[in-house]
Amino acid sequence: MEEEAPIKPLEIDKKLKRKLKKAKKLITEFELAQSNDAIKRPGELLDSPTAQKKFKDDSKTLIDGVKPRLNPEEFKELKKQLQERKKYLTSLPRFYLQNAGLSASLGINQETRVPILVSDVQQMLLYGLGGNTVCHPPDRWCCLQKYTQLTHIVVLILEGLSCHDFFTYEHLLPKLTSIFTERMEVMSPFQYGNDVAQEMACVPLSQSQKQNILNKYGTLEAALQSKEVFKVFRALFPINFSETEAEEEDTMSILSTNPTSLMPPEDMFPRTLLLLSLQQMVLEDYPLPFEFEMETKYAEFKMTRNRYKEVCINSPIFAVDCEMCMTDKNSSELTRIAIVDENLQVIYESLVKPTNKITNYLTPFSGITKEMMLDVSTTLEDVQKTIRKLLPRDAILVGHSLNCDLHAMKMIHPYVIDTSVVFNMSGIRSKKAKLSMLVEHFLHEEIQHQKEGHCPMEDATATMKLIKLKLAKGFRFGDALTADDASLVIPECQLTASIFNQTARANKAVSVIATESILEKYKNFSIGSKPGSFLPISITNSNEAIQRLQEATVNNNMSIAHLNLSKKMKNMDKLMTKIDTMCENVFNHVSRNGLFVTLFTGPNQKPKISQNDESDSKPKLENGEISSIINGSNHFSSTSTESNSQKYSRSKLRSHQNGVCFVRINTQK
């Protein structure tokens, strides 16, 4: 047998160097982990730059001029500790903001901040409670990783406090601000005629859930009688639900229709399912009659009708398309409009004389020339009067990026279908296809190829054809994102399920701690829920509520304490100091990996603004000065020319109206 060649000293040196290098790397990782754990803010799982800098400074220190080395046993032990630490960190639940949440963060400028809705917060809570069993992930505004590791959910609802209150008295909330690093502006439900308890208790049904309910009960009426679903109305728009009253007012419409409960034979599904929800209308920059907006930037806007009636499965659809030109106010103004009915007949078409002087006709896009506008005398006010007489009270307007057309018309309408939303070819919600692309792909036709520019009659007709095709083919036709989209709900008449029925599907119980008057609102939506899924706890004051909430966190999957502080806001310094202590006491009872949410819901009545604020809160807009409802997301339809002081005043007024959502997962040992 041949003898093995002896290992050369050089090879021994290389192996030793590799081992020492590996050991040094492990020491570095371990010390960096220890340093990071000591310096990072609570709940942060990523290595902080401060911790890395501290380690670099410490690693330069030598012991007796020699770098520290590990023996084999120390090396194995260190490796084991690092593996355990990695396993621990990857098992922790984690909350972080996504697109809409980042846009709502209080850390960004007021003018560009876009509030989330209470329904967004509700969706996050439900997902943390039961995951996909209960609802869809709240990916629109946040990400909740490892939700199965959450020990419990604790919610403190403080009704009456606003975003303005938080900023004004932030110096009195040191404990609250140290607990919560994630803070988002929330639109108050009172702005669209809803109630906080109703907003929390009613869960919008997803498309598949609606279909399952109909399969189970056969008809919507039977499902409503079973109390498994509820029909919720929002009072943002003035809607009459009396048929007699509706018919009397509808006689004033030129295109009024005879009411019938039958769905049109060519429709495969109710057309109401295509209507944009309130949440979608906010995100898509639709003008909405929020009180503080109607007093400022929408002061010149008009409703399409004084009152509306409930939209139904045979409400008429009208396609709208507008063309605009640029004026000397540096804004686009309406210069042509066309409306097409379901029979593809043009029922209204007109050139419109802008209020201000045209500086750019945008002919390649608008098709408008100087010669066309020479003898035009029809004004925007004339167009608005005609539309108000023309449309029935339950009319559904359809258009491609219809928000731009409504801004140009300076009109507000509750029932809208947007082909840029209900058709999606990319699979990415934010990536929208052009109208010409949709027409070419689905209708096999060509539009907008004229050298003279676009034709509003042609575009409106094409939009109507697309909607009629979708109604005939099925709800999922033409949209890669409607497999089971929970956000597709009717905006004014909304089908919902009880939050307690939803949580029961995951075998979870919810306790609600509140006064009897508030508990009654939750109880209205607990009828028919599984026994034990709703645990009401009546209290008489806030101190008792906090005590019962601390006790409930131990026994229940989700505990909600709902307090109305509207009548206790005379001494704000004392109240905010007390709230700071309340939040600290509750957080101290949140176990490790528990989710803690505090919600300032905004005022439940019109806020009282000081005279100094009042003088600034109603800036007068010059003609043509329009800005989008979501600051910073102004589309090409209109360009805002309001001054910085007007923008600041409007944002300050909004902060009086909206609330704040604070979120924290307790990951401390």
Task: Give an overview in words.
With 669 residues, this protein is α/β, with parallel strands linked by helices. Helices cover 38% and strands 16% of the residues. The chain has 25 helices and 22 strands. α21 links the parallel β18 (510-514) and β19. α1 runs parallel beside α3 and α18 packs across α19 (456-473). The longest helix has 31 residues, at 9-39. The protein is globular and about 90 Å long. The N and C termini lie far apart (61 Å).
Note the gap between the termini: 61 Å
**Main beta-sheet annotation:** 7 strands, mixed
Uncertain spans, ≥5 residues at pLDDT below 50? Answer: 39-48, 243-249, 483-493, 609-649
H/I helix tally: 25
* Number of extended strands: 22
Report the sheet-strand fraction. 15-25%
Mean pLDDT level: 77
Helix/strand-derived category reads: alpha/beta
Shape: globular
Helix content: 25-40%
Give me the side-by-side strand order of the main sheet.
4-22-21-3-20-18-19
Roughly how many Å is the radius of gyration? 30 Å
List the topology elements.
Elements: H1 9-39, H2 49-59, H3 72-91, E1 94-97, H4 99-104, H5 118-130, E2 142-145, E3 153-159, H6 163-168, H7 174-179, E4 182-186, H8 196-201, E5 202-204, H9 207-217, H10 220-225, E6 229-233, E7 239-240, H11 243-250, H12 278-283, H13 291-294, E8 302-303, E9 308-309, E10 317-327, E11 332-340, E12 346-351, E13 358-360, H14 363-366, H15 380-390, E14 396-399, H16 402-409, E15 411-412, E16 416-418, H17 419-422, H18 435-443, H19 456-473, E17 493-498, H20 499-504, E18 510-514, H21 516-523, E19 534-538, H22 542-555, E20 558-564, H23 572-588, E21 594-600, H24 611-616, H25 644-657, E22 659-666
Parallel strand pairs: 3-20, 3-21, 7-9, 8-15, 10-14, 14-16, 18-19, 18-20
Antiparallel strand pairs: 1-2, 4-22, 5-17, 6-17, 10-11, 10-13, 11-12, 21-22
